[in-house]
Amino acid sequence: MKTNTTFKTLALALGLALAGVAQASTAPLPKDLPAYGPDKPLPVPQIAQRTLPNGLTVWVVPRDGLPKVNVALSVLGGTAADDAATPALSRMMARLLNEGTGSRSSRDIAEELQAIGGDYGAGAEADAINIRASALASHASRLLELVADTALHSTFPAKEVTLAKANALQDLKVQQADPDWQAQRAFGHAAYGDHPYSRDSLTEASVEAASPDALRALHDARFRPDRALLVIVGRIDADTAFRLAEQQFGNWKASGTALADTAPAPRTAAPQRLIVPRAGAVQSNIRYGRPAVPANDPDYIPLTVANTILGGGFTSRITQDIREDKGYSYSPWSRFSANRVGGSAVATVDVRNEVTGATLAELAKLYGSMASQPASAEELTGAKRLVGGIYLLRNQIQGALTGTLANYWVDGLPPSFLGSYVAEANKVTTEQVQAMGRKYFAAKDQSIVIVGDPKAIDAQLKPYGTFVAFKP
Predict the structure, then answer these.
(1) In what residue span(s) does the Peptidase M16 C-terminal domain sit (predicted)?
(2) What distances in angstroms separate CA 290 from CA 272, 346, 362, 372, 451, one per listed residue?
(3) pLDDT tens string 28-57
């Protein structure tokens, strides 16, 4: 998911908007502003559910509005199921699903999508391979046919595979030069160790192994109806949607032995001190965090609210201290990311070399404050309204709602979570936030990963332990 990380774009946009407002006027707000109005009942769409005879789970959400239908197909078994010798090979496979089937070339697929006012994307995340597609509601039948064809009958043509491999190698070179990518890769290893969640990026070995035969074999092993969900959302009635699902996916049969479930990821880890040397760098890219919990854990919602107070919004403690007060970084923030069998909580702060050590000191103080300093009424109310507001705003968008429901299923959550999330977030108390601080934000438990120039920052790092070079 992703779960929570899917809100990042809206949260950052909202934060920048608030920043603009803050900078536009320094006048204090009037003291007699009215209190917040009472919370309104949350609109929860009706989700029709059915399981086809072959085991495929189908969720349908009829919606008025734009004459459009969105479709999501998720199949369990993403990058966490890939072989350690060829990490993220499923990403290569997913990228090529729409590059040719037994009856359509890649050009045929592109032209058909254009004809029905559609779009299509496929990818692999840690726990699933996902297809997301949409089209005009009048062409729902053709859209479902196209999704089924690419999902079940992809042929991985040799010329398309060759081109995709060349592009992937170029992308990999760009990524390897990106300090943010380097920092996140190193943090994944610090948080998850040898668990498959740490292997979510392609390597040259993965790309070289992506032959048509290898991709077809991987596809056949992963794509099973009894480990898949189809979500259909839009201007379509449930009976029609179920009929089309049965028509296009009813003959899909499972074969062979299903993949074993991914083992639970660690929830604790010995804190590490890692540096990715980047000679001549003028700034340090800092990642400060630890493993956490999966999306179905009882701590998920309280930890979401606590993280929002710590670093998940423009008025968060991290932003107000490191950006507004100290001026060390333009956009420091923290993220809690929850998946099917594990999660992580991490702060991202990019600072100039001269204040690297001072920033680590501030992070330790801020993390410690989550246990020692109870959230104020203003902090708690603001965090809840930010969490709930972004969630409700995002899921008014039909495509986002489709993806949210698919992600819930992948993460082992029921569709009813859609209606309970905001209500449960609003129940979080100051005491719960402080408990999350003690449990997940103690400074002594956080790993520190830095991408930077050792010569420029080595002296500043000494108070925080011995940093060793990260070698993937």
Answers:
(1) 211-385
(2) 9, 6, 17, 19, 17
(3) 768 888 877 776 666 778 999 999 999 999
pTM of the complete model: 0.92
5-21+264-469 and 55-249: identical CATH topology: yes
Q: Is 466 helix (H, G, I), strand (E, B) or coil?
A: coil
- If pLDDT is split at 50, 70 and 90, which confidence band does 16 have? very low
The tokens of 282 are what? 């003028």
The alpha carbon dihedral of 52, 54, 56, 57 has a sign of positive
Q: Strand 447-452: give its sheet, edge to edge.
A: 333-338, 343-352, 283-291, 447-452, 273-277, 468-469
Tokens for 115? 């004809």
**Region 434-451 average pLDDT:** 98
DSSP per-residue letters across 377-409 = HHHHHHHHHHHHHHHHHHTTSHHHHHHHHHHHH
Kind plus residue range of the DSSP H or E element containing 161: helix 158-176
Dihedral, 308, 312, 315, 318 alpha carbons, nearest 10: 100
- In the β-sheet with 119-124, what is the strand arrangement from edge to edge? 48-51, 57-62, 228-234, 68-76, 128-136, 119-124
Which tokens sit at 345?
């909580």
- For residues 462, 178, 367, 340, the Cα torsion angle rounded to the nearest 10 degrees is -130
Q: Which CATH number fits domain 5-21+264-469: 3.30.420.40, 3.90.1200.10, 3.30.830.10, 3.40.50.740?
A: 3.30.830.10
Q: Which CATH superfamily is domain 55-249 in?
A: Metalloenzyme, LuxS/M16 peptidase-like (3.30.830.10)
Amino acid making up residue 137 = A
Q: Is 70 helix (H, G, I), strand (E, B) or coil?
A: strand
pLDDT of 21 above 50: no
**pLDDT of 363:** 98
